[in-house]
What does this fold into?
Amino acid sequence: MSARRVKVGIDVGGTFTHAVAVDAATLELVGKSVVPTTHHAREGVARGVVDALQKLLLEARIAPSEVVLVAHSTTQATNALLEGDVAPVGIVGLAAGAAAVRAKRETRLGDVELARGVHLRTFSRFLDTAHGLKDDDARRALDELAAEGARAVVASQAFGVEDRVHEERVVELARERGLPATAASELSQIWGLRIRTRTAVINASMLPKMLETANLTESALKESGVTAPLMVLRSDGGIMDIEAMRKRPILTMLSGPAAGVAAALLYERLSDGVFVEVGGTSSDICLIRRGRPRLTQGSVGRHRLFVRTLDVRTVGVGGGSMLRVRRGKLCEIGPRSAHIAGLGYDAFEERPEGLEARVYAPLERDPAEYVALARPGAERASVALTTTGAANVLGLAHGYSKGDATSATSCWSALARTIGGSAQAAAERALDLAADKVAPVVKALLAEAKLGRERLPVVGGGGGAEAVVPWTAKRLGLEHRIAKNAEVISAIGAALGIVQDSVERSVLEPSESDLEAVRREAEASVVRMGAEAGSIEVHVEVDRRARVVRATARGTPDLRTRELGGKLPGEDDLRAVAARILKVEAAAVTKLSGSDWLSVWTAERRVRLLGIFPVMRTPLCVLDREGVVRLALDDAEATTCPPHEVEALVRRRASELATFGDGGMLPPDVFLVKSAQLADLTGLATPDQMAAMARMEVRGAAAPLVVIVSRRG
It folds into this structure.
């Protein structure tokens, strides 16, 4: 019998650190643990990561040798920026000749605002490299910056994206002096010296603290007997190895929400929908479309950065959010939560009798309008009225949030005696107030993606999901479901995370060689981080407006197709999944083709254009062997053809189905289905670029491919 292979995911939250163990072959949860997040330990949050891991191994009886991967999210980068716990940075600006005057100005940033009232100090020196870079000059500049207080260094050169030799030499000299350092062009190859410098400065400011944490975590992991790779969640939803994190900690901003989104994709198998992760205090909301979350450009304070992050919108309502009363009426919910206020939850109160409602300020800066329950004669309140309690009163809590409905109702009856009405009416009003915060964000995400008419499901994760998601979905008229093991969904996402990296490069008119170069660089990066070559998919896109070519490579540390066994869906099960996605009866679904890993399904469906005119559509979806929806299109065609015919077919259909708008030609969406990979050509700007990328994708292929073209663009 082969040894069990376990992936461990650890989610570092604001209050608790959760760890889970997932069987790599079956994706079954085989263990979980929780410890308080160790913000104040000498080792910082690294102590909690290790404590949660060791507790997990002990309680789930997992041998260290069975662990094949450990991945964790981290709040450290975000918290450091919000709280100003960063190192002062020295900037060495570099330029030659006529560019020197402007470069000197653009690399002198002064104090950088991180959050309201929180600033990062920077110091600057400038070296003119018209006659090359002299080591003595660079050393002198570094010594002066260190004397002023710099604890990390950035080297930023005008046109450094084209030649970063001088940047790299300054970094080398800085490290010789014991100063952590970053080359600006190492983080981004996009033109824009000031933003590139700012991005590098934010990254460098986190290096001392993040290096210390990475080293502590890695050494403690080895002491526990685990020799598996240590990975960290990125803010774009992928994972990177600890060595990459040591160089680019800025990529871990927002890695907490990213872990939940990763689980929605890989564990909950959400291909199209809105994922809402509900914690105790806040909820993170993200739109997932065609198996990909929306991405946006990262920012710190009011400053844009050359960093891609998930487009996650956060609102101040969660499972522990407290009620507010103004002039005798329920007026708002949150942002203060029960655990921050030091109060118990209504749904879990063991002695609810005799409690009375009080309106007060939980913390000094809070308005005196929060309502909580106290015993007669007691100086302090002891129980909070929360969204979780409201969900229990109304019978909406069935999983992790389920408490004692009788206790919850008794607590809410105490409120009703104060403001009038019934416990049920007050609970409904509370959940209406919660939905008032979440529903507009969901609507905005759908509208921005031009999906206002589509009925996408809302999927809830996090320990407070049942307190917020069902009522909000009802308000919106959308279907909903609560994710499996919702309370540890982020830790599961960390365990299942996909190795990912992106390469961006400024190119005026990208040639085929430019496209191939960024593709190869992104692919090589994830291979270095441990992704199996056969699992890698690369998405190349051309942003004509910004004149940027971007390649995003994704892969897994092992080929899932080699591991699978046992609990796989059969042909009828896959057909049922396809029928649900295509919105037809199972008998109406046709399987067009399929490999051992990917299959293509379609159907015909009559719809009404503008709600009036009947037209026929051919929706299509691609499923993998586990029943995960890899692609879903409303109206598309699929053609099976040998590899040598793919390029010509892509060029011809992309040209024939292209439309034209204010931005010029708009090619249709094009995808290639290979044996175990789905190649996405949608980000490319012209049929020629699509054909060129198709030629790269089929290189070395022997089996026929399926070319999918969305007829609606």
